[in-house]
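Below is a filled-in request sheet from our internal design queue. Each sheet records the structural input a requester submitted and the sequence that came back. We keep these sheets so that new team members can see what a complete request looks like end to end.

REQUESTER: design group, bay 2
PRIORITY: normal
MODE: inverse folding
CHAIN LENGTH: 91
BACKBONE (tokenized):
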């Protein structure tokens, strides 16, 4: 039983590390792509913040729901959410 648990833990850890590696590479490509498209650094930071807080965290905390792939970054959606957020803050 203990051997089976150790094998399971190893498989979970390996999957976690693969996912982390894939996610970090994807995020680096995304950030560099935004910077290369002449988006100012401060706007890239704001867009990443919006993506994390308005899209990734709700997806991550959706307990009890069916398994789903991580959300993809959509520049137009993030820009829209950023404009809404700034509009609400200005009120």
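RETURNED SEQUENCE:
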């Amino acid at each position: 039983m203990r051997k089976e648990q150790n094998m399971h833990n190893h498989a979970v850890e390996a999957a976690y590390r693969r996912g982390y590696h894939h996610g970090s590479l994807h995020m680096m490509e995304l950030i560099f792509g935004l910077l290369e498209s002449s988006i100012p650094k401060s706007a890239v930071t704001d867009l990443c913040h919006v993506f994390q807080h308005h899209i990734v965290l709700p997806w991550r905390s959706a307990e009890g729901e069916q398994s789903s792939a991580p959300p993809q970054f959509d520049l137009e959606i993030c820009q829209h959410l950023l404009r809404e957020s700034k509009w609400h803050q200005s009120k």
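SHEET NOTES:
- Residues 1 and 27 are 39 Å apart (CA to CA).
- Residues 2-36 form the longest helix (35 residues).
FILED BY: M.R.
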